[in-house]
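Task card 7
Instruction: Convert sequence to structure tokens.
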Amino acid sequence: LTQSTGRLEYGLTRSSEVVSGAYVGDGADNRDITIGFQDTARVPKFVFQMRDDSTGGGSAMVQGMVNGKSWTDGSDQPTGIKSFSANTFRVGTLAAVNGSGVASKFIAVG
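Output:
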């Protein structure tokens, strides 16, 4: 994500995968969300997540960032999307990302 344009500009190739999915939050810290890449060793380069309810909110993270960022105001979210690993992204306790019983959707690019 570039600050000046707000566009994703991150080395995508013909072999890149784009996957969408959903999960229901449980409020637990350090929860791994399985993405569903065909290549299960693939690490995401970008994840965009949003709550699937009227309160909205969500997070976006690009590989190499320390914390996810709010997609509504750009603020750091150290308890939102926390990290990436093979075929997963890790979330914390932030209600907009992992609120107990709250459905969320995501798009992952790897």
